[in-house]
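tool_log.txt
---
The assistant was asked to compare two proteins side by side. It first ran the structure predictor on the initial sequence, then on the second. Raw inputs and outputs are pasted verbatim so the downstream comparison step can read them without reformatting.
(1)
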Amino acid sequence: MNVHTRPFTLDGAAGALECALDAPDATECPNPRGIALIAHPHPLYGGTMDNKVAQTLARAFVSIGYVAVRMNFRGVGASAGVHDEGRGETDDMALLHAHMTQRYPGMPVALAGFSFGTFVQAQLQQRLDAAGTPAERLVLVGCAAGKWAMPAVPSNTILIHGEVDDTIPLTAVLDWARPQDLPVIVIPGADHFFHRKLQHIKNLLVEMWRRG
């Protein structure tokens, strides 16, 4: 499916926020089936919305008929402000959620994140749940368990982790997932950035979404 990427800017609490919307070709998919918000890895360690895992997640969602939107967190790229350890980033993602649900009213919203982005999305899910508007589903890749205080997530969350992740050890993710009885999909031989394994992320997401 052809993808059209359109940049746009939101006015956040700390200033302008640089965003990119990936949408299916209108001739192939005239009626998108949902919205996917994608959160990138840690800004202080080179994380941007152009990260390969973030882009892979966006392409996977577009392939199943979603409009996918990525945002540079505070202090990244053309986004104003400075890193706020997840607090301001969650606020900004909530702003993006409000913008997208107004732009595409009535559509379900999926939340997806990589590494630090999983922490932001899990926190946003808590806010949405408290407001009575929970996300349709979460996709957490390289989950930040053990690095940040990850809250509990819904039972239908898709967790994907690399077997040899040396940034966020698989054991930390299993320790976090075990009390919640959450399955973890482990990609053999994959490191934290899924070098040469990105296709597995896309294939797994598409397969899991089709299963429902």
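(2)
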Amino acid sequence: MPLRIVRSTPLWIVIDKPSGLLSVPGKGPEKADCVVARVRREFPGATGTLMVHRLDMDTSGLLLVALDAAAQRDLSLQFEERRVHKEYTALLSGRVTQSEGDIRVPIRLDVDRRPHQIADFTQGKTAHTRFRVLERGAATTRVWFQPLTGRSHQLRVHAALPPTLPCGRPGGLGCPILGDPLYGDGSPAPRLMLHAAVLQFTDPATGDAVRFESPTPF
């Protein structure tokens, strides 16, 4: 499963990551294979930590990797300051009733069930997702997501949360992403049906906005 490099420059590369490949190494030798390890092999002159952001192992799509420490700092700051534009496509289990909207439910790690994330309006971190229904099937809904924050599992949690939470506040879509082993409903799927389809950021070398698109593979 070779890396598909979408664009390569002296400071950064954009990769179209396949589902099933880790972004960074996990614990144990069986989880050493990852995007960072492969980039270091293919770009032996790369320095620094390389990783600017991450995609979950089972999520496919566009991933940005820096090739030196200065570029990594610049690009990471763009993500931190929410100056990076990201769009995802997902296939959800069930029929979403709303056509579009915003989900604003803060989330945090469930320390008793790592790595699960849960809604928490007291201790959770701000999480904001825009969505738009692209297509409704008999038992599924294809959705466009734009995460305006970058919390762990944000899209997966916001999709799965019920429309009205037990506390009475507005929740999520009530339709988990197909193939989600953590938040899914067990409906069969060949993989996590979530794809990072659009990525736009500022090139540290030129100051120009650069935009990349990846066709959704499902």
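---
observation on (2): The longest strand covers residues 85-93. The chain has two domains: 4-81, 84-187.
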